[in-house]
Amino acid sequence: MGMSVTISAADGQDAEKILKLQYLCYQSEAELYGDYSIEPLTQTLDSIKAELAAGDVLVARLGDEVVASVRGTVDPDGTARIDKLIVHPRMQRHGLGGRLLDAIEQRLGAGGTTKCFQLFTGHRSEQNLQLYRKHGYAAVGTRRVNERLTLVTLAKEAIAGAYAARA
Fold first, then answer.
1. Where are the domains of the chain?
2. Which CATH class is domain 5-166?
3. I need a surface site. Which of 17, 30, 58, 69 has the fewest CB within 10 A?
């Protein structure tokens, strides 16, 4: 019988595991856009440690292995920004990304001050766009980064009280 995947808050010891997983996961994005200088591939370990200290970071573990991660923060205006939702390539297409997205929304929405959730992805990242639409996100804007990449910002309203009971 196989192990089940558990989702929990990341700790400082997870920083290096998250960095390695991020590097692996963003290879396909870099290839898709022909740009291996994208921020997730150049981010430093110290930068990830700072994110662990400043915001909410969740990891999914299969045994001791970190197989997925997501980060989020809530701005003073109540906008919860979700960033770097990554799932190990061998674990993709099994619902883990959706589980992590739900978990970070619950975590960020638990304080009751979150008004909306916002995230972004590249315009060619169709699997990401499908996942976000399936979870209620809609495109609210685009920003052209260069001739190869346009970022699509997606958002959805936070439902008052929906997250407090589950926190």
1. 5-166
2. alpha beta
3. 30
